[in-house]
Design brief:
Elements lengths: L9 E5 L18 H13 L4 E4 L8 H10 L5 E7 L5 H14 L4 E6 L4 H6 L6 H20 L4 E4 L4 E5 L11 E4 L3 H10 L2 E5 L3 H15 L7 E10 L3 H21 L11 H11 L3 E2 L3 E2 L1 H6 L7 E4 L1 H13 L4 E4 L4 H29 L1
Parallel strand pairs: 1-2, 1-13, 2-3, 3-4, 4-7, 7-8, 8-9, 9-12, 9-13
Antiparallel strand pairs: 5-6, 10-11, 11-12
Helix pairs in contact: 1-12, 3-5, 5-6, 6-7, 11-12
Length: 365
């Protein structure tokens, strides 16, 4: 799976090693092998292009989880979150290239620099946010050279110095680089390295503005990144039932947080969460069907806004983002397995049918 053509649409799911979400507190071992296998297969059966394996300072290793997902599927692509700074870029490049070869070219890397100083401290990282993004840029400079260089290379940066770096193992094709971050330091890295720039589920106005800024950052490098939107679809047979389900998920989220003794969410340190909270401050229901109340409840700790409605209505809302330039949709549910099955059965076909109908109408016009 190489870099996608500019107009190709891609759907990415989310695979966690156990059953957990805002409304399902984690219980039992940190890895449930049967659940991991079932969730991965549900995404493959449902027609997803890739699945994300996330990174957190206390969670199972994403690269090893991805290897297991690859072992129990046949074509499903792997979007592996990797936090720069803890593995030397030459070593990480060889790890990703090795897995790409073993899986027949199914690997993509989702590069994250870390947006919360408290979480970074759990792994011993004391750099400032701007320093972390500067380190990420050097990491990607070196990784890309490792994947492509035909002779040993040197690199002298602030954070890394490499002498005669070289990797015998190369990817099957170019490994796609997904990247997110909305601060000025993050956008500088995005402009230089992002093949796909990842946004959270913001309002259409916010998405339009941020896409423009990323394109401006990429222009000096003569690059044209793709754009991804991460959102949590909440579906039901009728719009009324879908909104009732959304309110129930909000109530269950509050109850789960109260049961764990979680108080008010701390002010976020990353720009992406701040942008989601700014949207939530404007109202709990925005645009056609963007639901922001769960983001407000959780302090926008990650992908936490939803699109609410029937599969056809949510597909229409996704098309509105498609009109803004989004070509990748990262979707995951609050009932992870059940929702993944429903997305594959109902939402993906509804979106593809609506997009095809729009194409036919355009050709007829």
């Amino acid at each position: 799976m190489s870099l996608l053509p500019p107009e190709a649409v891609e759907f990415i799911g989310y695979v966690a090693p156990r059953h957990t979400s805002e409304i399902h507190p984690a219980e039992g071992p940190s890895i449930d092998r049967d659940y991991l296998k079932l969730l991965a297969k549900a995404h493959e059966w449902g027609g997803f292009d890739r699945v994300l394996m996330a990174f957190h300072s206390t969670s199972p290793d994403a690269l090893l989880l991805a290897a297991q997902v690859a072992a129990v599927t046949e074509r499903l692509g792997l979007m592996i979150a990797h936090r720069t700074g803890f593995t030397a870029p030459t070593v990480a490049a060889r790890q990703f290239a090795t897995l790409d070869q073993l899986t027949g070219g199914r690997v993509a890397i989702h590069v994250i620099s870390g947006g919360d100083d408290r979480e970074l401290a759990q792994d011993g990282d004391r750099l400032t946010k701007d320093e972390r993004y500067a380190r990420t840029q050097e990491f990607l400079d070196i990784a890309r050279q490792s994947w492509t260089a035909t002779a040993p290379f040197d690199y002298a940066g602030t954070f890394y110095r490499v002498e005669r770096g070289f990797s015998e193992v190369k990817p099957v094709d170019a490994i796609p680089v997904y990247f997110g971050g909305a601060s000025p330091a993050a956008l500088a890295v995005a402009g230089r390295h992002a093949d796909t720039y990842a946004l959270w589920g913001e309002t259409q106005a916010q998405v339009r503005e941020l896409i423009g800024r990323v394109r401006d950052a990429a222009a000096p490098h003569r690059r044209k990144p793709r754009f991804s939107l991460s959102v949590r679809p909440i579906l039901a047979e009728t719009e009324e039932q879908a909104w009732a389900r959304a309110e129930d998920i909000l109530a269950r989220t509050r109850a789960a947080r109260a049961a764990r003794g979680v108080g008010a969410a701390a002010a976020p340190q990353n720009e992406g969460s701040r942008r989601l909270l700014a949207a939530a401050a404007a109202g709990s229901r925005l645009d056609k069907r963007l639901f922001t109340a769960i983001a407000a409840e959780t302090g926008a700790a990650g992908n936490s806004t939803a699109l609410v409605g029937t599969p056809e209505q949510v597909a229409e809302a996704l098309l509105d983002y498609h009109d803004l330039g989004v070509r990748t949709f990262l979707i995951r549910g609050f009932d992870p397995l059940e929702d993944a099955i429903q997305y594959g059965r109902d939402l993906l076909p509804a979106f593809k049918a609506a997009l095809a109908a729009r194409g036919r109408a355009s050709e007829a016009a």
